[in-house]
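[Q] Does anyone have a clean structure-token version of this?
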Amino acid sequence: MQSFVKIQWQSLALPQSQLCLAAVLKCGQSFRWMSFGSAPTEEYHLCLADRVVCLKQDPTTLFYRTLLSRPQPSALPQQLADAETLVWLKDYFQLDVDLQKLYAEWAIRDKVFSSIETRFAGIRMLRQDPFENLISFICSSNNNIGRITKMVHALCKHYSPLLLSMPNPSDPLVEVPYHPFPSPTVLAAPDVEATLRDLGFGYRAKFIQKTAQMLVETHGSGEQAERFLAGLRTASTGDAREELLKLMGVGRKVADCVLLMSLDKHEVVPVDTHVHQIAIKHYGLKGSLNSKTAMTPKLYEEINTKLVNVWGDYAGWAHSVLFTSDLKAFSTHGVEPAAAENALPTPPPTPSPRKRKSNAPDASKTSSQDDALPSSSLLAPRLKRRRTTDTTIASS
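[A] Here you go.
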């Protein structure tokens, strides 16, 4: 095991109103961040291609440090690595965007937003690696955050070599391995589908392998496929969406998540059943909260247009705040401990053994609402033998 105890934390003045790690890294945007400990000293780690980035924060400061795969012979290479990490952090969290200014604008435009802006401060969009973002959201079809996280980590562990391992910050006797995200070339191999099925990916295994294969065959192996996806950042929203929809298992919802979360299309609002319910509940869209309405392309576009009209050019960012605030997993987020007890929903009476047996949900077919996310955790996609055209916006 390597020794990293001498790697110092670096600091960046950044209030939690601009970035709240506990919300941004746990609300279903990215699935590879590992968390250790608990607030207010919780740490977050992410393995990149050549390093592990570690983060923590207090109310006024973001702390970061860079762990490289090999101990550095002098302080200079470590200083250079920390400087590179700072550049990456500013890009990944899009810190050039003044989030407090956006919150103020949304609060003026939207009374619903104004009622939650203080409690759910600091929720911003990540600017992720497009290929990782794409594959992660293909995994999200009819799934929940916990299971997606396990799948994505299994993908990395199986298809990427170990970069480094180090002690768990919460339990130094436990060693934690770190694997980067695999490349399109690796996931395009013909035997990937069968292996992923063995790992529990189900029908998503075929989508992942075929999408990687299509990217490599069309745009080249090595880093060429990844450069193609990153290049969509400069394309129009319509053109970039059209390219994504060509890929296996990518429907309008997955495409819109990738557009928003890695391709700089800030105005895009990904729509699923959960977002549909928010639009009905708060924004005057016609419909019933108790009925299951098929998510047609027409309805999807209607919801998207309505919410963009409410929130403006950064509508996708505002959507993420509203979405997070509506999740049961965040029911006590930003609530003082004394008030948190009252914020929790009252549990239903324990059913009798007979009722428990007859009414128990099938865990393999349902997702926890606590783990709802903006991909399709409440949806049941209709699988077809041919390439699905919209696997992530089918009604639940």
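[Q] Thanks! Anything notable?
[A] Residues 344-396 have pLDDT under 50 and may be disordered.
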